[in-house]
Amino acid sequence: MTRRRTTMFGALAGAAVAAVLPAGAHAQETIKIGLLATLEGPFAAGGQDGMRGAELAVKARGGMVAGKKIEIIKASSDAKPDVAVNATRKLVEQDKVHIMVGPLSGSEGIAVKDYSKSQPNITFINGSSGAQATTLVNPSTNFFRFNTEGAQWMVGLGDYALNTKNYKKMALIAEDYAFPYSQVQGFMAGYCKLGGRVTHKAWVPLGGKDYSSVIAKLPTDVDALLVVLGGSDAVNFLSQYEQSGGDKPMVGGSITVDQTVLNFKGKRRESLLGTPAAGPIADSIDTPEWKKFVADYKANFKDGFPSPSLFAYVYHINMKAALDGLEAVNGDLSGNQEKYRAALKALKLQTPTGEVTLDENRQAIGSTFITEVAKGADGVFYNKVVKTIARVDQRLNLSKEEFDKMGLGSRDVPNCP
Amino acid sequence: MTPMRRWFWVWLFGLPIAALAVWGIVDNERLFFTTALNGLTLAALYFLVASGFTLVFGLLRNVNLAHGSLYLIGAYVGWVVGDSVDSWFLGVAAGFLFAALMGLVLQVSVFRYMHGQDLRQTMATIALSIIAADIALWIWGGQIHTFDPPRWITGSTTLPIIGKFSTYRLILLATAVAIGFGLWWFLARTRVGMMIRAGVDDRAMLAASGINVQMVFAITFAIGAGLAGFAGVVGGTALSISPGEDTRYLLASLVVVIVGGMGSVTGAALGAVLVGVAEQFGLAYAPTYGIVFTFVIMAVVLAFRPQGILGRRA
Amino acid sequence: MSAAQWRKAMNFTATSRNWSGGRPAPSPASPSRAAAASPTANGRHLREYIGVRHIAVLAAVLIYPWIVPPFFAYQIGGQALTLGLIALSLTFLAGYGGMLSLAQMTVAGIAGYVVAILGVSGTPEISLGWPWWLVVVLAIAAGTFAATLIGWLSVRTEGIYTIMITLAIGMAFFYLAQQNYAIFNGFQGFQKVVPPVVLGIDWRDPVPYYYLALFWALAGYFFVKYLIRAPFGIALQGVRDNARRMSALGFSPVAHRVAAYAVAGLIASVGGVLLVWYNGLITPNSAGTSWMINILIVAVLGGMRHPVGPFIGAVVFVLLQNFAIDLIDRERFNLVIGLVFLVIVLFSPDGLLGWWSGLRDWAMRRMTGPRPAARGNDWRSVGVQQARPVGRS
Question: Which residue segment(s) compose the domain that B82 sits in?
């Protein structure tokens, strides 16, 4: 009886293992690209859109590069670094992909970058993770990021807020984790240097939706509020702010002034007009490349958002970079992909928002758009581009000494009370 | 507990709290009273959620860890109904009814067969909460949903010292007081309430006196679940709904009910006030570690007075 | 008094806790099983005690990494053994001690954090960079100490209350780790926490890591198996079954329970060190609500009546986690795991082991003819303490 049980178990296990072992040698004519995004949990909608953006890049090339077929293998995580590494490991070691594109969130990105060091023969390209530390601290020679990160997205907004809008003193409300730290650093690096002052910093615990205490503590002598919250949290904040009688204007972070905020139905809706923000994209960029990108997105994905989200755009340019690099080496991934990586490093990527090149840590140098909320002809609010800052690098356009002295963004860095 | 020991505890906790309160008022009057009122209104929301939880535990001895999911599902259903017929009040009613129905179904089809096996029931509720959370994520996705209540509800009222304060939160406070009173009246003055109280005291005797115990259980679970759904719509209007809210309100209910005493609605009110006020003061005066404080309170109460402040040792 | 004398005094037969669990004393037709189940120091019984199935399974796990690709050895085998070890601590505490503690993952997390903070990591501003052997010893000590503290806080609670207080403690630790940047590095946690290179072997490589995890999993398994038959373990099970009677006999229930927490904490700490080495990182979410519940699911899935249960549960869990995306939408993994958990709780509360033993009973009954069924699938037979008030239903 016991022997039968053991052999039965062994047979079942063997069958299970055989069923999932990779099937033989893959054809030389297919290049496998692994695609990792967050498809579970609260970021699921963003992850889905990211996958759409990546697929759009593949479709634009007809699914082929240099005569070889591109095969996309998808994996999912739930914004947790250990799950992301497990999913990446499965793609790389089990499904044997040649190139990895992903992940989505900042802390996942750092974990995948660390994993990439143990797989020197595979090329890893970022998805949309935007943590500064991924390429500034212990960078990996086979991890490439063709999108600008959270701090770069705010460069130039400090100058605009101080000199164009005349906000000399501000108070900060942001969530207490890495991404807002980098956004605040991007803003304050310029703002403080030019003489602005952030007199009060309110770091709200992650996931907290009750801003009543934070609002009660806001000083009344500031000119504006720097609100670095996600769009829906920003709506919550605005309603609660309005209900407690607040009336200061706002400066938004990259994910703050999105569709949910623009559709805000509160009494102070009109006061939203003129709210500046900054980011790597804007709905209303005027260039033909951007318009073509939006039109392609809408045509291909009837079930997508009305306009491509940040995630769709960023995954798109990273996947485009992977494919452009493949074309540059004519699909030749031999020699441990050395030639491919060299091609990627030298790539001048043409994106819908301009040209992107890489710095010495394989981090993108790209453009940032300063926007303001304006009313369109049909009365609908939208983000109008008022200024374009080209060639923003990861040192926030400061000198190496200045930036190294400041260090990475945190609760107290930078500080100019 | 002898009167002397009771006074000892009152002085031990009361004196530092009074001293801190005096310091707070002197330091920033407006902030102190705003935070206190914020705490009370948050406590109102916690009471609404926790009252259902404690009712279910008191009678059925079922720690329903899917209570947070009932909150969330009630909120989503209320949102859908309110959005499609454009009436927030109908949404509230829909949230209450749907959650009550779900509770009824769960009790009759799942929990009835696990009578007496508390741990197994709890595990089943954990499994159900995981399933419900994923289904909610599947149907409604990850984005935050906000409600659209009538204009006269949102808006501010001007209060002395505090200045402008959210009208909605004041209405929330009033609603919770009304529901609390309603619950008390239901339990103390109606026949069904009497049966429930008798069942909390001695279930065997209740059955022995010829009452259809299963029906009483079903009604109680339905009311408890319905309260969660109602709180979901009402709380979601104040603080919006998103995935993860179910865990948050479940943990809040747990803390409130532990501190106040399992099975006691008055205890739930007291616990809600304590927890709500502590959370808001923590957020205002010590934002970094305020949340840790809430759970430390719960752990300490469980360690030294497991039945809660007003609970009876089961 | 010796274990055997004590058992006789308590009218407690060791056979009711054997592999097929929860059944009344076996019929005279199977004397070998009865003899095998009561351990003595006699070597002859030891030989009967180790069956062919044990040798086969041991051989299978030993040669496993040589016959499967490294991905399977590391991500499936290594991860399952590590999670199984942590879940083993929960099984020991809940199945044999009657205390269902959700804080085992917290203890593992504490040990992992100590490894990251005192050892080498990608955050040199906080990590002290001490030698690995010192760090591991301190991590296990810290985890065990934390578990003892948790035990001391939770010891007077029962059943549901234990779940809640351990959940509260776990949440408090999670928020503390998330909000504190000076020691725990907050939301980011610690990266690049890798096993050391010892004796020329890099223990991060799939096959060495697998054997490391296997060694500690086997150690934990045999340790628990030994302990539950040692006087301490028997006394613990007595405390689980009837604390009042034990107290009347002169045993201290509180001391036994706290000691059980400490032992479980030791096992969980070893698992925690292995886990942080497996992941190469630790964040507050590594010890957050979802992982606390996952460990509970792993333990219940496998079955809490035998120390091999958590390992079986861990294998199933890891397989589902990795291959669900190939079968159904990975997005719905939580739904699948929740449904599986619900089915287990509703129909087979003793987990896969209980289902397996029920299947065997059914098959045996079919083979040996009609006989009153002796099914031990009642939840009560698992011996997890009910929070039942005295004198009331």
Answer: 43-243
H helices present in C187-252, as ranges:
206-227, 231-241, 243-249
Substitution target from C163, C254, C297, C377 for chain B, most B beta carbons within 10 A: C163
- A93: chain C residues, CB-CB within 8 Å: 69-71, 74-75
More confident site: A74 or B299: A74
Q: Which of B156, B164, B284 sits opposite A213 (nearest CB)?
A: B284
Low-confidence ranges of chain B (pLDDT < 50): 314
Q: Is residue B276 part of a domain?
A: no
Peptide bond before C284: cis, by omega within 30 degrees of 0? no
Provide, as residue numbers in chain B, all residues whose Cβ is less than 8 Å from the Cβ of A244: 34, 156, 163-166
Residue of B nearest to C380 (CA): B117
Q: What is the DSSP string of A306-347?
A: SS--HHHHHHHHHHHHHHHHHHHTTT--TTTTHHHHHHHHH-
Tokens in use for C291?
């992982």
Decide if pLDDT at C83 tops 90. Answer: yes
Residue B190 lies inside a defined structural domain of this protein: yes
* Helix (H/G/I), strand (E/B), else coil: A391: strand
Exposure string of B188-202, with b = 16+ CB inside 10 Å and e = fewer, is: eeeeebebbebbbee
Backbone angles phi, psi at B163, to 5 degrees: 90, -140
Q: How far apart are CA B34 and CA B12, in angstroms?
A: 26
**Which residues of A are less than 8 Å from C325 in CB distance?**
74-76
Rounded to 10°, the helix B118-140/B245-260 angle is 150
**Straight-line distance from the first to the last Cα atom of chain C, in angstroms, rounded to the nearest whole number:** 36
Alpha helices (H) along chain B: 3-27, 29-60, 67-85, 88-109, 118-140, 167-189, 191-201, 203-208, 213-239, 245-260, 265-285, 290-304
**Which residues in chain C (125-164) have CB-CB distances under 8 A to chain B?**
153-154, 156-157, 159-161, 163-164
**What was the pLDDT predicted at C48?**
60
Q: Which residue has the higher pLDDT, C371 or B199?
A: B199
Give dist(CA B233, CA B238) in Å, integer.
9
Q: Are A330 and A64 in contact (CB under 8 A)?
A: no
Angstrom distances, CA of residue A396 to CA of A49, A183, C140, C151, C302: 28, 11, 43, 51, 53
Establish if B151 belongs to a structural domain. yes
* Residue C319, SS3 per DSSP: helix
Which residues of B fall below an 8 Å CB-CB distance to A? Answer: 30-31, 34-35, 38, 42, 137, 141-144, 146, 148, 154-156, 163-169, 239-240, 242-244, 248, 280, 283-284, 287-288, 290-291
Mean pLDDT within C339-367: 86
Question: Which pLDDT score, from 0 to 100, does residue A174 have?
Answer: 92
Omega before A414 within 30 of 0, i.e. cis: yes
pLDDT digits (tens, 9 = 90+) for C157-193: 777 788 888 888 898 899 889 888 888 888 888 888 8
Residue C229 vs residues A35, B58, C11: alpha-carbon distances, Å: 51, 39, 16
A vs B, Cβ pairs < 8 A, gives 99
> What is the length of chain C?
393
Q: How far apart are CA C341 and CA A328, in angstroms?
A: 51
Closest CA to B274 of B261, B262, B285, B259: B259
Query: C131: Cβ–Cβ under 8 A, 6 or more apart, which residues?
Result: none
Distance CA C321, CA C315 (A): 10
Where in chain C are the domains?
68-287
Asked if residue C154 has pLDDT above 50, the reply is yes
If one counts the domains in chain B, the total is 1
Q: What amino acid is encoded at B2 in this protein?
A: T
Does any domain span residue B117? Answer: yes
Whole-angstrom Cα distance, residue C340 to residue B124?
A: 11
